[in-house]
Fold each of these.
Amino acid sequence: MDIARLVTSLNEAKLAGFNYYERRRGRYQLIAPILHEDGDMVDIYLQDSPLGEGFVRVCDFGLTLMRLSYTYDISTSSRKRIFESILINNGVGNEDGNLYLDSSIDMLYESILQFAGCAQKVCNMRYWSREVVRSAFYDDLNDYVATDLTRFEPLADQFPIPEYPISVDWSLTHNAHNFYVFGVRGNDKAKNVAIALLEFQKARLPFISLVVHEDMEDLGKRERFYLTSNADVQYPALNEFRERVTSDLGRFTGATA
């Protein structure tokens, strides 16, 4: 890396408060007044770019994802899509966890700001608007059932009463017992599930209902009452469903699940 030319580029861009420190040979940490919301400096490093002369790689050596992992899990497919969309929209690549952006030296100032903004967005994924985060609930539930509960022969979107328009999100089978799983986000879905459970009970279907809430506390008093009156088991949040469902299936059927 032509550090002299790099310094000239930084100076010409009038980056007040910017500096650099060579942490390892050929790897320079940028010391810049670009901060996360808790006051920690955004991790930005500069090194030679594989694009060759006249380019520099702006990267983080995996520190952004490490920071995110302390408070937010992006292992599910829906959250991975959100993460990948942030990178794509900001022109940032991902190489085994190392976020990077290759910049011409002439555009280094702009690239540093672009990269830093992307790192801040990644670290703030857990604070995205509630609706965006909520959109992952059904995907997360589906991912879990389809991948972790395969031994219970999961079937999606089942209609126990063919002429009845409301479906069961997932049907599970264990020891000759049927379990109907419903994901509930919001009052409208809660009302539909409560009504469906009444209809299934009137039809004398042999099943045990498992209602998984995104956040049970968000429901209205009336919706919670109707579900509590008609559902066999309710899980206040998805994490509780993950932790308890296997043992609950065994408990209801008298067989190890």
Amino acid sequence: MSITNKITVKRAEIAVAVILALCSIALMIKSAENRITWNAEENMGAGFLPFYLSLGMLICTTLTIIKFVLKRSPQSKDDTPFIDAVAFKFIAVTIISLVVLVLAIGYLGIYFSLIFFLAFYLRYFSEKSFAFITIFAITTPILTFLFFEWMLKIPLPQGISEPLFYPVYDFMYGGFSFAVKMIFIILTVVLPTALVFLTTRFIK
């Protein structure tokens, strides 16, 4: 019996319900380390929303587990395969590539890791052209950088690639005018697209 036949709808339902219940409990414990109260004097505590959202998820998953034990849901009596072999292959590739992405972020940093992840993922799962994949894989990390590090001032992990961003930080926080910075942003986003277009247009 193949692994796809062993993963039935019944087993998938109870496995997901138990995993989500455990994750909910872990999130509630972690959220409780911060203030989870909300009053007029102190406003909302940092752990308020995560705690009660996790509590809601725990209640839902507990109801699912109870219905499974009592055989009250159609899924609790369904022994048909949950996924077919083709879908299982796609799921396995997705999980493996995401694990590699997470591990690579700690070493290469999120931006370069994201380039390789998007290029691989789009190449494997889509029929998009080489030009589209290249443009998308390069511009997405650029826009992510501009959004988090320039607009929100939230630094993301950069790993060994961090020194490459020092000149960019000097420009971002230097004494340049707003107009010059906007031109830089536009060129940063447009140049990869232009280079890929020229490459595919004139280099066969």
